[in-house]
Amino acid sequence: VLADSHAHLDMGEFDEDRDAVIERARQAGLATIINMGCDLPSSAMAIALAERYPEVYATVGFHPHDAAKMAPGDLNGLAEMARHPKVVGIGEIGLDFYRDRSPRDVQRRVFQEQLALAAELGLPVAIHSRNALSETLEILHNWTRSLRGREGRGVLHCYSGDVRQAEELIDLSFYISLAGPITYPGARTAVEVARTVPLDRLLVETDCPFLTPQPHRGKRNEPAYVAYVVKKIAQVRDMPVEAVAEATAQNTIRLFARRRRAEG
Ligand SMILES: [Zn+2]
Ligand SMILES: [Zn+2]
After folding, report:
1. Is residue 207 over pLDDT 70?
2. What angle do CA 117, 123, 126 make, to 5 degrees?
3. 242 CA to middle of ligand 1, Å?
4. Which of 6, 29, 92, 111 is 20 to 30 A distant from 208 in Cα terms?
5. Using CA atoms, how far apart are residues 244 and 173, in angstroms rounded to an integer?
6. Sign (positive or negative) of CA dihedral 43, 49, 51, 53
7. pLDDT at residue 128 above 60?
8. Which ligand is closest in space to the CA of residue 208?
């Protein structure tokens, strides 16, 4: 059993062969795929895919790249969408100071508004953070102070920080998700993270169509390839592949199946 905790199957890259991609995921043993939203249309598309494919679940949210697109009222739109039974989180949200496609002050505001929404709805968050991890951590420290329970609050997807920052996130009840880049030659810090993060805090993902793992690097990524990420983690931890697959699949379910307070 495998889970892909972060995918973008709604994207145009999959328009030609989406059914075949999902079928290959099934053949590879994937029982859970969490499809992210990046703005309102992609969030709606994520929900449509979740309705069509039993193993697909959706999150809704504005990606930091698309933060500037969030109009007044869109937060309510996300809240409405989040009522759907297959919406399991708010994401992907966060900060991207590498590409800076939306102004930083807008990214900060939109991130914090969506964190507040997630808290209100009792949903976990899927976080994107690039060249912005210290500021992301600062925001998450403040956010978690406003929360009550200690259950999983979210995941840092395609984690690219160091071991110490991973420990800080785990202390805040976050999960760490690793993607294709850990399979690349020269991946050192990410491999160290893969080796040291407690197994019950680790998720795996593809972020497909991006971040294709070895040996398919350079081509389109797809959920079935999450197996290469699992294999690499098993190798660096000197563990059976099955154990890593099982643990990361269970962790994905535990995080995203969190009971929603709004539903009582
Ligand atoms: Zn991302
Ligand atoms: Zn993504």
Report:
1. yes
2. 90
3. 27
4. 111
5. 20
6. negative
7. yes
8. 2
